[in-house]
Amino acid sequence: MGRVQLFEVRLSHGRVVYSPGEPLAGAVRVRLAAPLPFRAIRVTCTGSCKVSSKANDTAWVVEEGYFNSALSLADKGSLPAGEHSFPFQFLLPATAPTSFEGPFGKIVHQVRATIDTPRFSKDHQCSRVFYILSPLNLNSIPDIEQPNVASTTKKFSYKLVKTGSVVLTASTDLRGYVVGQVLRLQADIENQSGKDTSPVVASLLQKVSYKAKRWIYDVRTIAEVEGAGVKAWRRAQWQEQILVPALPQSALPGCSLIHVDYYLQVSLKTPEAIVTLPVFIGNIAVNHVPLSPRPGQGLVVPSAPPQEEAEAVAGGPHFFSDPVSLSTKSHSQQQQPPAALGSVPGAPEPHPQDGSPAPHPLPPPLCISTGATVPYFAEGSGGPVPTTSTLILPPEYSSWGYPYEAPPSYEQSCSGVDPGLTPGS
């Protein structure tokens, strides 16, 4: 063993997660078996974003720096044998973005210490990664408490000469959710044809956009629910719910190289019909009671088919106007125990009894990874809790580089424009 037996960076109180604008304090610890001459002992605190054009590659093609502060802990001299501690403190900038890790890039913050030794001697380095959480308050997003509604009508031909249409309408109770909250969805399907539809599928999608030499899109299916199909000349209603798993927050303010978006996609394979609803994943839950749609908002769901379709229907079998309830065939998520719902974010807080003090609210959770193993921080101090999430399914494409067309932006979904992607939407 060499002269340096221990060289490490320790953060005060063992903290792992910090907020922008907060002081970060700690100490550099050194234990020597013999005296060590040095030219300087320095510590730096840095934050940066790095993006690669290949998955899981450290050959970064684009980098973006957020802060780089340095302190000199000791000038030229010699450290005697034994243990030494050099305290330090940095002030994190108020604009520092939330930490993030993905297959094509990451936002990383760390403290690095260096012992600069005399010429022909090996320098000694060590580092400690810490995480920054800039909480996304969902209440700051306009109309976040309003239901999310979108509709599409698909005309198609069957049996060579017959035509029909399907009206697919999807809605959610809110437009934003936090980890552990239940997303309640409803799909209304109006089958104005003599052909049964395929099963209805609802998917919670995550789209991460990376700005390398060109935009790279990583689209993943987070959770998926499948319901039954709709019989000919029938109206049906399907209600389900998805428990939001540990996920990085929507958007990454302060970072221009990585963007995170989420969508709820409700679709039919036959006939092909897709409705996409943008949703936000935040850290602070919506504190308003869900309201009914305001007058003039949302999409108008047709109460009757167009005239030519009405004539076709009139000449065919009787159309049943009363909707039937569809059953769920499969759900990618495991059943959660009812007792757990009382402790998840967004659930009603228990009222203190017998005069006992109210429990202290937990800090917002932090999830930084898009992978199947999620570094999840439920509190602001202590170490990460790596939770293997069975809710995140493999990507829906075989090539990492440039997958299929991503879901539309929020503005495009609301305006009814064809699903296209604008980078960083």
UniProtKB/TrEMBL annotation:
The keyword Membrane applies. One of its GO terms (molecular function) is ubiquitin-like ligase-substrate adaptor activity. It is found in: Cell membrane. GO terms for biological process: protein transport. Signal peptide: none annotated. Residues 297-365, 379-425 are annotated as: Disordered. SMART domains: Arrestin_C (SM01017). It holds the Pfam family Arrestin_C. Keywords: Cell membrane, Membrane, Ubl conjugation. The keyword Calcium does not apply. Residues 324-337 have a biased composition (Polar residues). Interacts (via PPxY motifs) with ITCH (via WW domains); the interaction is direct and participates in the recruitment of the ubiquitin-protein ligase ITCH to the NOTCH1 receptor. Interacts with ARRB1 and ARRB2; the interaction is direct. Interacts with TSG101; may recruit TSG101 to the plasma membrane. Interacts (via PPxY motifs) with WWP2 (via WW domains); ubiquitinates ARRDC1. Interacts with SLC11A2; controls the incorporation of SLC11A2 into extracellular vesicles through an ubiquitination-dependent mechanism. Interacts with WWP1 (via WW domains). Interacts with NEDD4 (via WW domains). Belongs to the arrestin family. This is Arrestin domain-containing protein 1. The lineage of its organism: Eukaryota, Metazoa, Chordata, Craniata, Vertebrata.
